[in-house]
Amino acid sequence: MPVELVKKLQINSEDRGGIKVIPFQTCRKIASELGLKPRDVEVTALKNGICPSRYQRNIGTIGIGGQIKLLGSRAAVIGCGGLGGWIIEMLARAGVGEIVMIDPDVFDDNNLNRQLFSTEGNIGKSKALAAAGRVAEVNNAVDTFAQVTFLDENNGRELLEGSSVVIDALDNNRSRRNASIICRELGIPFVHGAIGGMFGQVGVFYPSDRPLWESEDVPDKGVETETGNPPFTPALIASFEVSEAIKILSSAENGLRGELVWFDMADLGSQRIRISRSDEN
Question: Same domain, yes or no, for 254 and 218?
Fold first, then answer.
């Protein structure tokens, strides 16, 4: 840890409500002066009890130790559309250090109603590349890895290896099955989300869990083929997925495991259902 870096961080920090805080712009300036990565400067600040200002509102919930863990983590998001756009946005703002974004598709005009990164100006352009560009604007301390490709049984290990968590933003159970099997082989927790109309669901599956969609008789699509998806459903379910992912990355307790939480936004109902078999049983 460079002594000069620590001194600069200490000199430029101030007490704000009982927490030593340094403006994130100052962290960027110090990184440039010393030829360091912005993320390394932020981690060093946190390890010395100094919070970069951009994360100040995180600390009361996840603590300085949790923020350090987030910055040192890699999350992979499979799908950069309705769910994936909101997920990637929140991960970047939370300060997850590395984000892998996997999506072979380009934006279509019917994405404009609900996909955060879809604009009138980028129809026909890559979703994964747009996601990486957005993260650079929101938090350029985050390293991005845009993969313009399908994830399948042939490339899945290469795409997901090294991730601390994989987050499902897919729209079909066949791809979901491939992803969850690869996560189990690699020992990576898999955070699941799916949406359809006014309905949504979230679950977390660890390597010893066997989600039911791994069965061949599970339909590939659901009610979304009839209902479509309005703007608010992906935002809500993505929030729950990111919450569960951050619990995993920051080593928090009380996360989901082997269960689905199912939401009906038409009548504000919810239900918690156990849906996986465990290899440990």
Answer: yes
Structural domain for 95, as ranges: 73-278
Same domain, 60 and 78: no
Instruction: Spell 87-102 as b/e; 16+ CB within 10 A means b.
Output: bbbbbbbbbbbbbbbb
Per-residue pLDDT tens digits of the chain, which is 281 residues long: 689 999 999 999 999 988 999 999 999 999 999 999 999 999 999 999 999 999 999 999 999 999 999 999 999 999 999 999 999 999 999 999 999 999 999 999 999 999 999 999 999 999 999 999 999 999 999 999 999 999 999 999 999 999 999 999 998 888 999 999 999 999 999 999 999 999 999 999 999 888 877 766 666 566 665 777 899 999 999 999 999 999 999 999 889 987 899 999 999 999 998 876 655 54
